[in-house]
Specification:
With 437 residues, the protein is an alpha/beta fold. Helices cover 30% and strands 22% of the residues. Strands 1, 2, 3, 4, 5, 6, 7, 18, 19 and 20 form a ten-stranded mixed β-sheet that branches. The chain has a five-stranded parallel β-sheet with strand order 11-12-15-16-17. The longest helix has 18 residues.
């Protein structure tokens, strides 16, 4: 039976010739996996299709518990010309993600319970679960705390003013105290504004050569140092967003050794690309982001941090912008790129293939770590569990073209690049999505 490529309710599905990986399954043996009424019903060899089942031949691809991206920007409400919850979920599914956590820099921001619930309601029918992250401060203005407890009751999984830091240390101290009582992390955009702005790229030899004002590494590191001290004082859980410098990784490493409650994440572009891309690509605004692309030494430090466990999770910081916003002079372009659709391939090519991480270690960064940070249940690959699954390859070669982009925006530095490894489908909430190129 042929499967359609659009998401469809599929209570019963038989995945033939897949390699389960996760739980008791090592990914070394090829099996069949049967889903009945949205739950994993059977795993074994030579399973015969039932009359009411859709059947998909996985062709030897892996199947794991569904992946999660804990840091995306879906732009709804208020900026739907860039991305909507629906198009964001479509992009996430193509990237292999069954769950995401969306940042609150929308219009209005996610600073009250009603906005949290609005996002959850809009996303309720999607195959990708969307978990809102509420603001730390009202309207993201950094002055007074938002209604954190009420937002948690509405479904907020963390608190952040991402896009901007929580700049006032007294406000951050109180936020960490409250978040500790609520058992939710505070995710801070680590940037000392007095040191960083109006930087347009990493401050270094390339920015000097190009005549662009740069953002120094110290702007990130100073704010991280402050937050680590406040987390130590309050016992709160600080999560360092999109880490990007060697010294920042070392500070987190030392803080963890001291027992400070800190976790962190890294984006694929920060363990793949360097600030040299801005010169190589002739001021292409699709390599303008914040934190900026930094040096090769920083890239190496991101990989080291992933390898030794200092960096807990891989996220995308998926940041859609319209063509009109990005097709301007470099200094006027907004920061950010879309990343949901290429995260797995970049991770395979930069982490798995060179041997920096094994496949189970890499999947840990996509499956367990982000959910544990956000206090969310980790899906299980076992009979009787709700089917929350990602089907993927580590060796399939494909080209990332505009034609395959599911996001509403096109601001990616990877368009036209040959990739290896791809998410070929997801199953979640009783919905099957087959990702065809």
């Amino acid at each position: 039976m042929t499967l359609k490529t659009e998401p469809r309710k599929t209570p019963s599905l038989l995945l033939k010739n897949c390699k389960p990986i996760g739980g008791i399954y090592t990914g070394n043996e090829q099996s069949d996996l049967r889903i009945r009424d949205g739950k994993i019903a059977e795993v074994g060899s030579g399973l015969a299709p039932a009359p009411d089942e859709l059947v998909h031949d996985a062709g030897g691809h892996f199947v794991s518990p569904g992946w999660m991206d804990m840091h995306v920007h879906f732009r709804e409400p208020g900026q739907e010309h860039k991305e909507t919850i629906h198009t964001g979920c479509r992009s996430a599914a193509f990237g292999g993600f069954t769950e995401v956590a969306c940042m609150p820099n929308t219009t209005p921001p996610i600073h009250t319970r009603d906005v949290v619930e609005y996002i959850r309601n809009v996303a309720s029918g999607e195959p990708v679960a969307v978990h809102p992250i509420g603001c730390v401060t009202k309207e993201r203005k950094g002055r007074s705390l938002a209604e954190m407890a009420d937002m948690k009751k509405g479904g907020a999984v963390a608190f952040s003013d991402d896009g901007d830091p929580v700049y006032d240390p007294a406000v951050m101290r109180t936020a960490l105290e409250y978040s500790s009582m609520l058992d939710r992390p505070v995710i801070n955009h680590e940037e000392d504004l007095a040191l960083s702005r109006p930087g347009h790229m990493h401050e270094g030899s390339i920015s000097t050569k190009l005549g662009l004002e740069g953002t120094p590494s110290i702007a990130e590191e100073v704010m991280i140092a402050r937050d680590l001290l406040l987390a130590e004082l309050t016992g709160g859980h600080i999560h360092v967003a999109h880490i990007s410098t060697r010294n920042a990784v070392q500070m987190v490493r030392e803080a963890k050794a001291k027992g400070i409650r800190v976790t962190t994440e890294v984006c694929p572009h920060h363990f793949d690309l360097t600030h040299e891309e801005i010169e190589k690509r002739g001021f292409d605004t699709n390599v303008k982001m914040h934190p900026p692309l930094r040096t090769q030494d920083d890239v190496d430090a991101m990989i080291e941090g992933l390898r030794d466990g200092t960096i807990d999770a891989i996220c995308t910081d998926h940041a859609p912008h319209s063509i009109e916003e990005k097709e301007v002079e470099f200094i006027y372009a907004p920061n950010g790129i879309i990343g949901l659709e290429t995260a797995w391939s970049i991770s395979v090519m930069r982490l798995l293939e060179p041997g920096h991480l094994t496949l189970p270690q890499l999947l840990e960064k996509f499956i367990r770590a982000p959910r544990e940070i956000l206090r969310l249940p980790v899906p299980a690959l076992e009979v009787g569990a709700e089917a929350n699954l990602t089907l993927f390859s580590t060796d399939e070669t494909w080209t990332y073209t505009e034609a395959v982009i599911r996001s509403k925006s096109r601001n990616s530095p990877y368009i036209g690049q040959t990739m290896r490894g791809r998410a070929t489908g997801i199953y979640h909430r009783g919905i099957w999505v087959l990702n065809e190129l």
